[in-house]
Amino acid sequence: MGYLEEMHLQLENENFPAFLHLWDEYKMNQEVSADELIEVLQLVKASEYKDLFGKHAEEALPLKEAVADEKKQADILRLILDLQSTNTETLAKATLDYLEKNYSDTAHFKDKIRLIGLRTQDHFQGAIRNFELLNHMEKGKFIFHNGGWGVGEIMDISLIREQLSIEFENVLGIRELSFESAFNTLDPISSEHFLSKR
After folding, report:
1. Of 31, 84, 94, 121, which residue is the least packed, with the fewest Cβ within 10 Å?
2. d(CA 12, CA 122)
């Protein structure tokens, strides 16, 4: 049985100490499969132990650096940020470096860095995913509400008020959401996605 299967089994058996023991062994490997690491992090993210794992998430950074594929490196970093609860300077620097390399020419870049918590570096869990959501937030774009409101169309957005107005398919009227609430409940949908076209 491989690490992924064993880790999955320990989480299913609600044995987090055994999972952490496996994680300690796993992170010592010199070479890991990028796909397997992504699956391990997704497994933890979907589990009830997500918050407990938060202080260990940063331990995956050296494993990310050993991955050659830049897209998979980005996926791993995004998952580390989704899970982490330490908000260390090392994580902040890795996140800022990634965002500057990939998004520095986007509109309102510095404002978005502030909105995701990277300016003060006090709390920036989910920073990359939140930045990408902010980048997606434009009038006429579509999002999905993971709390049951369904697909929504962005009607208006204000960086000053830090809120957006959305019309959802399963809710009457236009709803105002703060960015903080949006970070916790919304996922971007591309214009080509079948939910947007529907």
Report:
1. 31
2. 33
